[in-house]
Amino acid sequence: MAAVVDTLRAFFAPSTFVIDAENPGDVVARENLLDRAMGPGRSKKSSEKLRRGRVPADGLALVTRDVDGHVIGTVRLWNIEAGVTREGQAVPALLVGPLAVDPAHEGKGIGGTLMRAAIQEAKNRGHGAILLVGDAAYYERFGFFAERTQHLVMPGPFERNRFLALELKEGWLEGAAGMLVASGRKLAMPPVKRAA
Ligand SMILES: CC(C)(COP(=O)(O)OP(=O)(O)OC[C@H]1O[C@@H](n2cnc3c(N)ncnc32)[C@H](O)[C@@H]1OP(=O)(O)O)[C@@H](O)C(=O)NCCC(=O)NCCS
């Protein structure tokens, strides 16, 4: 009976969550969440090459916390150069590191709220565009489309129809061509090793 009551309570409870800046105490919880949400192959993705050994863009590592402060969602944006313009100038932009929500909390609007908060913060900070590799069916709702990445390539295997971009400033990616390059600040120390 108690189990049934708990289930009903969980079902009817208001889904309360807050968005917060990630802090150093969140690293282990975030990595565990990413393992659960994305599976073991996540570190082999081409986007990982653009993140390894770097810190996220200033102010653009966000988490969602539940009422007890536990991390149940994560998104980080990374500084990159999205190829070069026709005049040969590098095009600064951001790349979405995984957006992930704890599988126990999916479908409550957490992913959407977190993604919109990250987009707004990137806009506030004056960034021109955000790129990512992900499901178009999910990311189109935020304004991400494959059209603007036509002449760009990831530094490794990727599926073109999943390589998407959102311009925060109109025309920012106009004419941008070439390979994405990491441009964020380098990590001062090696990443935290987790217990096996
Ligand atoms: C994708 C993810 C971040 C969505 O988080 P969430 O908190 O459940 O998202 P929201 O509640 O804001 O949105 C849920 C909606 O998105 C849809 N959705 C979720 N993943 C989708 C996908 N890959 N493609 C299309 N639609 C998707 C759901 O069906 C749901 O639709 P509805 O609103 O019509 O019911 C989460 O499922 C996750 O962490 N997945 C594993 C990691 C991952 O794949 N991340 C990158 C996405 S390509």
UniProtKB/TrEMBL annotation:
The entry's keywords: Transferase
Domain N-acetyltransferase: 17-169
Superkingdom field: Bacteria
Gene3D superfamilies: 3.40.630.30
Gene Ontology molecular-function annotations: acyltransferase activity, transferring groups other than amino-acyl groups
Signal peptide residues on this chain, from the entry's feature table: none
InterPro entries listed in its UniProt record: Acyl_CoA_acyltransferase (IPR016181), GNAT_dom (IPR000182), MshD_Acetyltransferase (IPR050276)
Protein name (record): N-acetyltransferase
Organismal lineage: Bacteria, Pseudomonadati, Pseudomonadota, Alphaproteobacteria, Hyphomicrobiales
